[in-house]
Amino acid sequence: MPNLLYLHGFNSSSRSAKAEVLRDYLNDQRPDWQLIAPQLSSTPAACWAQLTRLVAEQKIRACVGSSLGGFFATLLSEKVAIPSVLVNPAVTPAMLLSQALGEHTNPYTGETYILNQTHIEELVQLQPSSISVERYLVLMTSGDEVLDYRQAENFYRGARQCVVPGGDHLFTMFEQYLPEMFSFYDLYHADEQTDTG
């Protein structure tokens, strides 16, 4: 059974609304997939080390990443050549999080941690310079109040994209796009099998 990896956003949780919607959908509609939704480390280098270990231990066939999780999903897709669906992805999180330095408390887990300049530099070092556009389906809302969707639209130009007018950063209509998401995964892997003979 193929594993689908869900990566949550900054200061969020593996039990966030999108993760729960995805879990329910797999149970009801796509029992041929198994969900892996880890609670990600709160700092960039630790998070990347966690994900690197995970993909070494598990056979991950596809990924979903929301916001900052979209950034890490992109890194994984480039590292292990898997398809990713990105939901309002953070393209340059170093710029975004440099405005959020200081102490944070995760509202889901209660964890308190400090985001500092070293963590911003970690994000800069992780920033991909190029991507393989065929690996991505990018879902964005023009009304995203946290990120400018046009950054993702430009960075992932050439990838499959869907810009929903209005909406918000949470992408509350996520459930409506799950059939399209799995069609993308199925098609990607079908093409991969054709290419490799």
TrEMBL record:
Q: Which residues cross the membrane?
A: none
Source domain of life is Bacteria
Which key words are in the record? Hydrolase
Name residues in a coiled coil.
Answer: none
Q: Report the GO molecular function annotations.
A: hydrolase activity
Which Pfam families does this one have?
Answer: UPF0227 (PF05728)
The protein depicted here goes by the name YqiA/YcfP family alpha/beta fold hydrolase
